[in-house]
Amino acid sequence: MMLEININNFADDKVGGHPNICIAVLDGPVDQSHPCFDGANLTQLPTLVSGIPDRGFASQHGTHVASIIFGQHNSAVRGIAPHCRGLIVPVFTDGKEGRLAPCSQIDLARAITQAVERGANVINISGGQLAASAESDTLLANAVRLCQEHNVLIVAAAGNDGCDCLHVPAALESVLAVGAMDAQGNPIGFSNWGQAYQNQGILALGENILGAVPGDGTAVKTGTSFATPIVSSIAALLLSIQLQRGEKLNPHAIRDAILQSALPCNLSKGSDSRRCLVGSLNISGAYALITKGKLQPMTNHKLDEIMMQPTEVDNAIAQLQPSEVIEFDLKQPIPQSSAIGVQAAEMNQSTTMPMKATPMMITASNQANSSVAPSECASCSGSKQIQLVYALGELNYDFGTQARQDSFTQAIPAGINLLDYLEQNPWEAQSLIWTLNLDATPIYAILPAGPYASLTYDRLREFLADNHIQRVSVPGYIGGSVRLMSGQTVPAIIPQVRGMASWTVPALIDSLMQATPTASQEDVTRKLREYLERIYYEYRNLGITPQERALNFSATNAFQAATLMADAATGDLGLDSITVEKSPICRPDSDCYDVKLQFFNLEDNRRSGRVYRFTVDVSDVIPVTIGELRSWSIAT
């Protein structure tokens, strides 16, 4: 069967989307050699998983989802937005027994950030983690907030557990959740209907959806995974209309229009009305809201315009998967000794996948320059750019394989610990995988390279040997990936040794206070500690985006923060929020961001507060502050 969506209300020759509208598909590898993608404008981004498609489960899922959006109209799979630009961001790989290999919320956050940085307007995530509440890891929450700040819409599957329950990221604020209905507008029994979806969830056709199969075939599949790209495509078409009308792109206004125009769904007598979420997708109604500012009524009978039409399909494939319900489970990040699971499920299967130790894999080159994996610029044809990073965390190490761990155990003499052994045999430091961790979860491997690699290893040994060190900063470039002993794959940082630093919070504050003498030492110390700890915990991040790099640098080189905290202490001010914004003050050929701290009056919150801003230039691998500290009063 074949899905066709009637969008006659859209501009005649523009049906299919505008090439300046970008949809990112975060899924399994996509077989771009399939005939349905011939002519599609697709770019695959390098991620932690192999993007090489095969006939495995992850590639089947990713190819099917992508074809619903980008399938060209002269092919067997007519996509809904074939003229839009596409970013293919592989996050799922094959595991055992037809399931998917693990994918953490941190990895999903990385992929979302990549998509935003490369110009995505809409991000399609046909997967999620079954969650008790609409909460996620801080890094994933940061990535979703980044989408809000950059005007990017995330469309995510509601999940296939058939319960009053939620999936993350679908349940997160600002995300558009998608449940599944049949061709008659009835919610399908497996589609979730948790409380958050009652305000931000839409039902779309999710039964027997035609899509591409790796190779050159087609198949029909069922699930919220396949309803999701339908909504992502419609959002992209509505954005195309905004663009054609000369209006500012506003994906979140599109989200509001889709939700506000939703129609009641069909329910059998006595059924739970919550299964309908906000309602069913009303394409013409959303179009009317965007173009005319008013709803165009559409009855349930007009759902016939979203119609199923017969086509030639490989019957053998269709019989193998007649009503396949596919979802993923993004496990919360947990210590590296445990599996972090993402898997596909037929309805409500087990959500864990045991991992066995596999040989250490380092995909980065040992050459400093060539090892940096460049990525294409989203806004300029053919140009290349490298991914800078300025990350904060705790230093640790990993053996990579059981064999490597055993070799160290056998080589270290009795009565000597690893650090003493490395002191006596410094060349052995390169046999370890050095990691940067957040709350015991590795987020990067540190891979020294180039002529000063030995100095970098010496610095790492010094950091690890000091038991008092709480934080380290590692600036550098992303260059490949490394597989850890747990099976987790993390990006590799090619570090710049001159920007590496280590500290304890008390020692950092002491040094700052010596450089910024003040009468109210105790109050300034308390405010500085709060500032640093909020960056470490509330605003913790991966150090990839310019905003993250500016914020992390402000916590490492915190002299501006010490100065403003001294001023805030004299005015009885309390820290309210920390934000990072593009700076109007910058030098030519630089990339500058303002770290903005907003304070409220501690004595009377009705009195004016104060804003402090200082500027960080992040155009180089090691950021630098420029200009002077600025401040002004604000009304509360």
Considering the chains and any ligands shown, give keywords for the structure.
alpha/beta; five-stranded mixed barrel; about 25% strand; 15 helices; seven-stranded parallel β-sheet; about 625 residues; Rossmann fold
Question: Topology of this protein?
Answer:
Blueprint: E1 2-5, E2 22-27, E3 42-44, H1 57-70, E4 85-90, H2 105-117, E5 122-125, E6 129-131, H3 138-149, E7 153-157, E8 166-168, E9 176-181, H4 197-200, E10 201-205, E11 209-213, E12 217-221, H5 224-244, H6 251-260, H7 283-292, E13 306-309, H8 315-320, E14 375-376, E15 384-385, E16 388-398, H9 402-411, H10 418-424, E17 433-438, E18 441-446, H11 453-465, E19 471-483, E20 489-495, E21 501-503, H12 505-515, H13 521-538, H14 546-556, H15 559-570, E22 573-582, E23 592-601, E24 609-617, E25 624-634
Parallel strand pairs: 2-4, 2-5, 3-4, 5-7, 7-9, 9-10, 18-20
Antiparallel strand pairs: 1-13, 6-8, 11-12, 14-15, 16-17, 16-19, 17-18, 19-20, 19-21, 22-23, 23-24, 24-25
Helix pairs in contact: 1-5, 2-3, 5-6, 5-7, 6-7, 12-13, 13-15
Describe the structure.
With 636 residues, this protein is of the alpha/beta class. It has 3 domains: 319 residues, 3-Layer(aba) Sandwich (Rossmann fold), CATH 3.40.50; 129 residues, no CATH class; 119 residues, no CATH class. 27% of the residues lie in helices and 23% in strands. The protein is built from 15 helices and 25 strands. The strands form 7 sheets. Strands 3-4-2-5-7-9-10 form a 7-stranded parallel sheet, with helices on both faces. Helix 2 runs parallel beside helix 3 and helix 5 runs parallel beside helix 7. The longest helix is centred in the middle third of the chain and has 21 residues. The N terminus is likely disordered.
